[in-house]
Amino acid sequence: MSFARIIGVLLAVFVASQIYWFVQARALVRRLAKTRRARILLTVAGLASFLAILLLNFGAFGERPSPTRLTWYDALIAAPFAWWVACWSGG
């Protein structure tokens, strides 16, 4: 199996899982929010949060220096994201 095919399969699994979780989140928003405006606000807030964390952890804002001590950012944002990536990739 070529490297490109492996990357394609992993990307397809990633996209499929994101679609699944989007559908689950949408169902939760529909159940919790009663008005259309509240649903839209919750959806926009959720998507904005997801995209911000994704961009922040994939280095869209530049490479962060690596401190020798544990910071709040590393404990609350970087570590859970790294854990998610490791679990998603089958590690």
Description:
By secondary structure, this protein is mainly α. It has one domain. Helix content is 76%, strand content 0%. It has 3 helices and no strands. It has helices spanning 3-32, 36-57, 72-88. It is flat and about 45 Å long. It starts with a helix and ends with a helix.
Task: Sum this structure up briefly.
This protein is an all-alpha fold. It is built from 3 helices and no strands.
Computed CA radius of gyration, to the nearest angstrom: 17 Å
Topology pattern, helix = H, strand = E: HHH
Shape: flat
Which percent band covers the strand fraction?
under 5%
Total of domains:
1
Q: Can you summarize the main beta sheet?
A: none
Q: What structural class do you assign from the helix and strand content?
A: mainly alpha
- Cα separation of the termini: 20 Å
Give the averaged pLDDT, no decimals: 83
Low-confidence stretches are: none
User: Would you report the number of β strands?
Assistant: 0
Give the number of helices. Answer: 3
Level of helix content? Answer: over 70%
